[in-house]
Amino acid sequence: MQENPYREDSELLQELLRQFENLKNGRAHSFIEEDSFEKIIDYYQEQDDLKSAMSAVEIACEQYPYSAMLLIKKADILLARRQYAAALDILDQAALFDSTDVNLYILKTEVYLALDQQEKAVQLLEEAIAQFEGEERMELLFELADVYDDYEDFDKVFDCLKLILEDDPNNEEALYKICFWTDFTGRNEEGIRLHLKIIDDYPYNELAWFNLATAYQGLKLYEKAIDAYKYAITIEEKFDYAYRNMGDAYIRLRKYKEAIEALEKVNELAKPEDVIMEAIGYCYEKLKNHAQARFYYRKASHLRQDDSKLYYKIACTYFNEGQWQACFRQLETAMKMHRNQPEYNLLAGECKMQLGQIKEAVQYFSTAVRLRPRNNNGWEALIRCLYKGEYYAEALDQTDEALRLTQGKPLFLYYKTAALFGLGKSKEALLLLETALQEAPKLLRKFVELNPAILRHQQVVDLLARYKRNKSI
Description:
Largest sheet: none
Number of strands: 0
CATH architecture of the domain at 1-99: Alpha Horseshoe
CATH class of the domain at 1-99: Mainly Alpha
Order of helices and strands: HHHHHHHHHHHHHHHHHHHHHHHHHHH
Helix content: over 70%
Distance between the termini: 94 Å
Oligomer: single chain
Radius of gyration: 36 Å
Low-confidence stretches: none
Shape: elongated
């Protein structure tokens, strides 16, 4: 039976640390090998014991004065202690012994960045990249990408990742990162070309298919995106992000049943998320399955309890079913969190109006108007409510205010006409109706919807007939 290798490593490390303590205190051990010093220094760095790490590296450098590796370790510790000038000096010394250690350039880059000298960092890395090949070149390109990210030259971040993938098309880190930067920089066409080339050479690379799909999605080519996502999940059945993005693409295409199927797969594969539950609820709402929409909005609200908008969405499902009391209860919860949301007050007003509680409805509509005084919807709801409650004088006053604040929207000419008729001022109302017809004939239906009985008013009928003879409504 084989010994536990981790236990062996631990015992070996403890023995090395004992040897180092003996050496430091002038006891029996007077020699430790170079690679053993490296293990000792790494241990102290991992423990965040920089004092002991520095002590170890200084003793090591005395025994191995020409070791570039140990000098680089010392520079790393100096960098952690923010002794940047000293770190640079040590790195220059290390370069004299071995200029082929990639860590030399990475640490120098970190020093330059710490000193806010990005240009020097870029120049150093670009020169170093030309000298290295293989994994070391990849490492330097990743470092350069991070430098460009730090000072927000995002297109060059994309360029670095593209270079990595041209050399190593299956590099997972680069594939993961370039997906974000393709979208962020908007270089979707390049992303498509790059990943099609990778797929030609490596057709079973699911990340390349996924990135191709997201690039198509960035260009709003949703059908092509879905096809690419399907390839990705054929290769990797548990690729939850592919299902997630596919669900979004289906929603964009208004294919809500297919979107639900994809998003439900995300729930199977990953930890439940509020945004997924909310998206499924949205799909059911679009399919007019209000009970199921409500079920998923509730699930989302359990995961995101401080979001009043989810309670508003639940309220909307009740409203669409004509359940006014249930709708209002959800709105009360939403408004406890955010009282001054115009949408919440508008819907609350509609509920109260449907319940015949006109005075309360007027209060909610008035709040919506106060919050957004130049928005048509609030004024329309308020005036409509006042008219339905037969508060014609108040409705007339509010139409004047609405016309003033909305820069004379023609709808409110019709509503003012209705209020004048309600007050028995037929002559004035007919003159205003004629003006409204001239300005916005298509809004006549709104006037009729407000009071269908108006079409039994002979003078209104005569006016409309005369207007139809002269112009097409």
